[in-house]
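Hi R.,

Here are the chain sequences for the assembly we discussed:
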Amino acid sequence: AAKLSYAPSSYSTDAEPNTFEQITRYNNFYEFGTGKDEPMAYAGQLTTDPWAVKIDGLVEKPGDYDLADLLKGVALEERIYRFRCVEAWSMVVPWIGFELSEILERVGVQPGAKYVAFETLVRPEEMPGQNYPILDWPYREGLRLDEAMNPLTILATGLYGEEMPKQNGAPIRLVVPWKYGFKSIKSIVRISLTEAQPPCTWNMLQPREYGFYSNVNPEVDHPRWSQATERRIGGGLFAGRELTLMFNGYGDEVASLYAGQDLTKDF
Amino acid sequence: MSVADRINRAARRLPAWPIYLIGAALPVWLFWQGTTGGLGIDPVKAIEQRLGLWALKLIVAGLCITPLRRFAGVNLIRYRRAIGLVAFFYVVLHFLTWLVLDMGLLWSQALGDIAKRPYVTVGMVGLLALMPLALTSNDWSVRRLGALRWRLLHRLTYLAAIAGAVHFLWLVKAWPVEPFLYLGAVLGLLALRAIPRRGRTAA
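And here is the predicted structure of the full complex:
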């Protein structure tokens, strides 16, 4: 993959990143199948160039933006983030990306906008998992506007200094490090600013299990399993478990977003 | 000679002990692969899931033996004990893998999950249901209990099979096809047993 040029970031964790192999061969990307190894096996056929992102809704400059135009002028950074899956495993990933707020500011957010909605590509001929109604395609996710504008929230176009591997959500994906991984939607083709809270795929499927916020929270369990601890991928057979951190360890940056909210209700 | 006769004739010559041998060798091979990178990025989950799936496959295989004899005249009953015991062995290893490698011996969280998480609870029910069956899977116990009581006791297999299939379906995200196939197979094989026998009056 093509090398990217980027700057380091003070938002990066000191933790040792997982290997490129671990990050690219252990993926949840149901568009290519429900197995962790299926994205690696099948994502190669995905056409990621040309790629356009429709930006619409409550914005000043809506339109179908060619990816290259969208990326013109953005400053790429390396963000080494903890990544916590709702399935209670975790990794550390050296993403390359830029703050979502850069794009939102450029297209102009109208005053009435309160949420940002995202959609993944639908192309069953290249995404074999979409031939099955496992999820209600397209995959949809959303953030509250203040979450979207937080400097930790990035659109990532690469990892390990190279263009994003297809199984990790090429060519452009969201990364929201204090939320469970499924919020970080992959292969984005649409970004909409909305007044109402947008529907989100996992929340639509099982609202009791996957809330709109889905902040990493060791005190609020998934109904079917505990979220108090996690297994760090790559530790080998006997690594055991680590304690899960509130907001995945990003409380200093994001806890204030939820002041006054009951996180057991707004889970 | 019919296919059933051929199978029966072959079965008379093939002993059951290789099932124990292969059954014991497979987990050794699995753990060895897990330590040498042969099971992918997350060997803990791979071992845990594979042992659970093998156990479920064997339980389904064990449930096939009675209907095969009744409806197809194929008699594989001499392998049933070995299949059942190896299935139990895999269920125990599956549980230990969860407790030691997956939970990392976090006893409080493990016990909490057994009590609070329905899919874990159901899995434990399956394991506990298999215990008396494993303990009585020997000739001495059959004599001691008498054939009738032994057969009644071993109907716990049905509970364990349903528990295993429900456990699988209940732990997955979304609704993939595979766990439904296992649950369907188990329920179908149990339903076959409910078909009344001809030429016999109800007691």
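Chain A has one domain: 20-255. Residues 20-255 of chain A form a domain with the Sulfite Oxidase; Chain A, domain 2 fold (CATH 3.90.420.10).

Let me know if anything looks off.

Best,
T.
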